[in-house]
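Newbie here. two chains, one complex. Structure please?
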Amino acid sequence: MIDLLSYGAFFLSVALTYAIISLGLNVQWGQTGLFNVGIAGFVAVGAYVSALLTTPATADHLGGFGLPVAAGWLGAAVATGFVTFLVGALTIRLRSDYLAIATFGAAVAIHLCILNLQSVTGGPFGIGFIPRAFAGLADRPVAFSLANLALLAAVVLALYLALEHLARSPWGRVLRAIREDEPAALALGKSAVRFRLQAFALGGAIMGLAGATQAHFIGYIAPDNYQPILTFQVWAMLIVGGSGNNRGAILGAVVVWGIWALSASAVAGLFPAEQQARAASLQIVMIGLALCAILLWRPRGILGEARIMSRHVLRAAPTATPPPSTKSET
Amino acid sequence: MTPQVLMDGLVAGAMIGLGAIGITLTYSILRFSNFAHGEFLSWGAYLVLAVASGLGFLAGGPASPLGPFSFGWTLPVALVAGIALTAALALVVDALLFGPLRHRGSAVIILVMASFGAALTLRSLLEFIFTSKPMYFTSALQIARPLGGGLRATPDQLLALGLAAILVVAIHLLLTRTAIGRSMRAVSENRQLAGIAGIDVRMVIRTVWIFGAGLACVAGVMSGLLVQIRPQMGLDLLLPLFAAAILGGIGSVPGAMIAGLIVGLAEAMTVQLVGAEWRAAVAFVILVAILLLRPRGLFGRPE
């Protein structure tokens, strides 16, 4: 029973860290239509910045400033927001797939940097001994994992409320206006480039925060955690849950992470040890096929895009806003 | 820096150039950047490997090397079959995934995302079938021969360069001098208008996939012959391919090849001057520079 409880808390905590990334992606894609293929890289920036700020001093690599965990999280969000801003500033004026290519390249470059800048990041060995929240409870595992789960749940809830508020604010309405009809938004005097860049950087900052929470939850980070497969999982989460919907982003994270964890234990149970690496690639094939199938048959995901309008408008004209995926390019 | 850098860079660049031609064709005619293109390189290499091994098995033992090259008669035969199989793979992916999305009038970015999903599926499938252990077309070792001026090259490398040159010229002539080439350029200008003018747009799209995947197969086999075959090879080459396609200017076949050579040379110089561990960053630096300075590329037209 206790085991089950601890495992449940562990599972949900990991799923919630993914939910934070997914919420960040929803700001970029769901609300603004910006395609980010470099999620893994931006999450890595957050994880490493926070780890460097909070770990105790060490001779192996730079950093070890020993700051409190909260300072690490804040630093991670700010630093990642800045990096995403730079990548966005480079490409956001150009056609939409250049942003995809540039973020893909940024993730490759970031992965290469954390792998090679051994004096800063510890190189392939990564960084260990990252302080965990509620370290004082470490001798009572159940209380410790429940406290961590509560903390992550609080972070997700706070982000959810803030993002919902933001989506309904004038700022959020401008973003959707730009996504749905850019010339009209421009005609109203809204600078599409500036709003897109703000949304992109905000989403990046949230991803950085997610990287930090993940690093502090696991206690150890290494370059291999930030492979393209992470990007892919998060995309699957948002698409499954329903892009444009913050609740969908959270639900998708829990569902996809659940499927992933279940299929991983199925692989571990069903295949002999020497075939496990091979069978693990089938897991990825499955998620890939699922993503393509959803794009083909149910582009709105489980929940679909949330209708975010003034209640009065909804009462007058009860038509849903079209999801971004059915919009055709003109 | 030794003159040998030039040779290594040109050989790697020819490979990148061939792959980038496929990217630039899909980009200019189907109008989306195909993240699955790298997987056509890996699939091409593995398909050719499978056919060559099968032929060798039927002939009773591996074929003896042809002339100065490291491979026997099975590889050229398998290459022809592999090109056809890779093209068939691209057509299947298009029929199952991109075609339906296109007919529904999906946004460009949905196609890009679908290509991203297809890339991971295809790559993991390779890993499942062949495992991630590196494989080789041949175990024969080749001695690099001096070419004069301090340059050395293996016969395989020279063959790769020659084949790339012939293919680029052939594709360029095909696009500029033949009816199907004219149709392709018309569709790239305006798909609707081309359709109204009586051009069979679906035929053009099929042709684009066949050319793109065929060239990718050749590039993958070259990479497999000169380096090794791994399921990750397409992913590792994807960023250099995009960098070359954008640097050359979207839609320009000679541009893609020249830009491929530039990327290859820059990588070889980086390996020499900075260190091999930073090789993968070169394509990103080039990409950032071109997006900052001249987003339409060297030979592209302004949008």
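Moderator note: Chain A touches chain B through 49 residues (CB under 8 Å). DSSP finds 13 helices and no strands in chain A. Thread marked as resolved.
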